[in-house]
Amino acid sequence: MNILKIMMKSMMRKMTETKKAKELVKLLERLIEKDYLYSEESIKEMKSQLRSVKQQIADIDKKNSKGFGA
Questions:
Q1: CA geometry: angle at 31 spanning 37 and 53, to 5°?
Q2: Is the pTM of the predicted complex or chain greater than 0.85?
């Protein structure tokens, strides 16, 4: 019973992390669209963060993939 609870908590944590990361991607994309509000340096930083978060999501998805090529 304890192992099941631990596995469920782990799965929920991963789902929450992925969900938060995807929300962060949406937020960054919306901010970057309004580039006229930010300096060039800020835009570069946001784009860098966006690439990083997208890569993290891809890594998590690849790790959790149960299909071919995994």
A1: 140
A2: no
